């Protein structure tokens, strides 16, 4: 019994370490990928001075952030000011424990599923963790003792809470079709066809709401540089700012992973190994996010809320009703 426990713990640690390493590496190079891609879109070079083709720019940026002075504003709530940046990064990374990266493999003489922690209520755990991430924005702005930061955090909380509702409703048809809330079961249910073929409306709503949850253009109102300096993280510097920055890019990868799991068949695909298929599908979403950043203007706050409550919410509800009606008619 003791050997079995130690072996299971070792496998869990190995899987967690590999996923953490891959996700953080992808997030780091996503910064370089975005700067290069935006440069191409805007007819300029992007980073090209540090290393071949700018490949060592990440190292230069990391050293710069490490050497920057870590400032705390006068009158700030020091405990919450220190905690806020890590909340978003931690909750986003925690969701990756639910994502199946492939089928089963043989390791140490036992069958090991390529998922860290499968659970029957995986969708609910994902939604709960994404809700906790709201506190990072709220506490970061409030604890800074800066009116611009506070306005940014209020905007961010209202935006994230609002768009969580249509995002949650967009997933209802998915687990209606799969008959389970487990992310592994949802991927298995797409063995014959990806759900995006029968739920394109749900996929579109999920993508748009994920874009809003990520606070990316055209939904970057919580940061609004020309209005709020930098919004909720105005007073952050050094590695604390880097945690906010890292959380945004990890969230981009997470959105890609969830989009792949819920609508694109997850790791399933011909010829290539499962993890390779999942990685290819994941990269579609960050590319689209970067494309929208280089293309679209920022929405006004009233436009953002109007779009959520008067367009996405009714559309998501109608999609749930239609899906239920069609399934009942077919059965």
Automatic annotation (TrEMBL):
Membrane topology: Multi-pass membrane protein
InterPro entries hit by this protein: NADH_UbQ_OxRdtase_su1/FPO (IPR001694), NADH_UbQ_OxRdtase_su1_CS (IPR018086)
UniProt keywords, alphabetically: Cell membrane, Membrane, NAD, Oxidoreductase, Quinone, Translocase, Transmembrane, Transmembrane helix, Ubiquinone
Cellular compartments per GO CC: plasma membrane
Catalytic activity: a quinone + NADH + 5 H(+)(in) = a quinol + NAD(+) + 4 H(+)(out)
Bilayer-spanning residue ranges: 6-32, 79-101, 121-142, 163-181, 193-212, 241-265, 271-291, 311-330
Enzyme Commission number(s): 7.1.1.-
One BP annotation, GO: aerobic respiration
HAMAP family: NDH1_NuoH
Family named by the database record: Belongs to the complex I subunit 1 family.
NCBIfam families for the chain: PRK06076.1-2
Quaternary data: NDH-1 is composed of 14 different subunits. Subunits NuoA, H, J, K, L, M, N constitute the membrane sector of the complex.
Protein's name according to its UniProt entry: NADH-quinone oxidoreductase subunit H
Source organism of this protein record: Pseudodesulfovibrio hydrargyri
